[in-house]
Structures are given as C-alpha cells and as structure tokens.
Amino acid sequence: MKFEAGNILMSSTATSMRTATAIAEIRAAVAEARQSGATIGFVPTMGALHEGHLSLVERSRSECDVTVMSIFVNPLQFAPGEDYSRYPRPIGDDDRLARDAGVDILFRPAPEDMYQGHRTITVTAGPLGAEWEGASRPGHFDGVLTVVAKLLNIVQPDVAVFGRKDLQQSSLVKALVRDLDMPVSIILSPIVREPDGIAMSSRNRYLDDADRVRARILSRALEAARNAFNAGECDVAALEAAGKSVLDSETGVKPDYFAIVDPSTFTRPQFASPSAAAIAAARVGSTRLIDNIALGADGKD
What we know:
Layout: E1 2-5, E2 8-11, E3 18-20, H1 23-35, E4 40-45, H2 51-63, E5 66-71, H3 91-101, E6 105-107, H4 111-114, H5 133-136, H6 140-155, E7 159-163, H7 167-179, E8 185-189, H8 209-214, H9 216-230, H10 236-247, E9 253-261, E10 277-284, E11 287-294
C-alpha cells in the first residue's frame, strides 16, 4: 500500500507500534531496543499529524533501526490567549498515521507527567531566539527548548529529526544540543508543501476555504524574494521589499514580519548569500502561519 504525502510518496508499513505514556515506560522500551543493538531515531511532535510529520518519520527510518515519535502538546510554549486549549488533538487519527508510517514506539505523555510538582529550571533561548518568532511570541522558545531538552534526555536518541518549516526553532535546537553537549545528531528535513504551495502545518486545519486561498500568499512572497535573489539582487533591503510587496497585496492577511536572515544566527546581513533564508509570518483570518525558503536556487526548503 502507498500513502501519498504532498510531493513525496511513502510506503505504508502497518507496524505493531508500541505506545508508552509514562517516562519509565518509554525509557524501558528504548533500553530494550538498544539491548538488541538498534539505533534510535526520534521525531518529536505535538500531534495533529500530516504528511510533513510523516516525512520526518521516513527520514528517521532511513537513518536508524527504531523510530520513536512523541506526541505532546506542550503548555510551556503557549502564551496566555494562544490556542493551547483548542490545539487539535485527533488521537485516533494520529495513532493510525504514526503506525502506518512505521513508527515503532509512540510516546504520549500527559502534562502532569512531563511537569511534575514545582518546576524551577527553564532553558532560555538567548539572543538567537530574541527576534522574529521570539519577539512575536515572548517566552515561546524558552518553552520549546525546555520540553525538547526534557524529551531528548528521556528518549536519548542517536538522531532526532526536525522540520525546516520552524526554522528558527530548529536553529535553536541545534544550538541547544551543541551548547549542552548532548550526544544526539540533529537532522533538518525539508518543508513539505501542499500542491498550491502552502507549507503543511497542523494549524492549516483552522483555515476556512477563503482563508485557505489567502494563505498561499506567504509562499508566493517568499518565492518573490528568492526569484529576485536568483536574478542577481543581493541587497537584503531590496529582497525584503520584493517579498513584502507581495505579502501586503493580499486582503485579509495581516503580516507580522518578512525578513532575510542568516539561518545560523537569525541576524539580518546587509547582503544575502545563497545560504540565507527568507522568513515570514502573518495572520490569515484568525490563524497565524509561518513559512520560510532558502534563497539559493538549489537550497533546501
């Protein structure tokens, strides 16, 4: 059986997936796999799975013998008034998709298990997380890095796979692993897009039909900046103006930011190189979406 995932095609494996809900359970399951000599790949998610998540599973399975997926809607990364309470939690669908994609062990902890008692230690993002998403969602990255640090310590994988769509988050995770000397390799997997160019996201299900059409403007604005770069424009201000003019052209879309950044530092250079990224965030109707693109013609989204 084949499962079509946007612009990728994967084989369904229908494995006998093991589910763990307690930290002791997942540690025991991973230890058992390691005793047999298996390497461990890890895909952390918040559920509401889509083909983008499943592409991460495919990458993990290509790198490691056993793939662990976590599904945990992390309360620490949601500010008051954000969508924590209504964030989609389709448990049955997620279990089926994870199993069919070939996940070997699913870790589905409860918030009270992940954050027991009085919590005194939080990982802080620092300058790398200060701008863009960090400025728009204060405290968000501290919550992300805290839960990622916990999950990596709990699962202790050889490889962890993250999606490039959350590019600033992925850069912070790489810095977390580097700065805290965690023995895990971080792999960034390309963005998976819908046929109309929209980056796959769990929040896309919030969009009504009209907003779904409007949401295409994010990828079009990013493409405009990349097209200008590939035509010879290197001045960052000019590239940003090219993208912003497209983003501003769509009614019903409220831009948050559009910028050209060095993806290793998330600072704005004066002149762009092929490794630079265009990043964008906007509210489409009531839904906030993010997206990015590598400027180089051969760059991975």
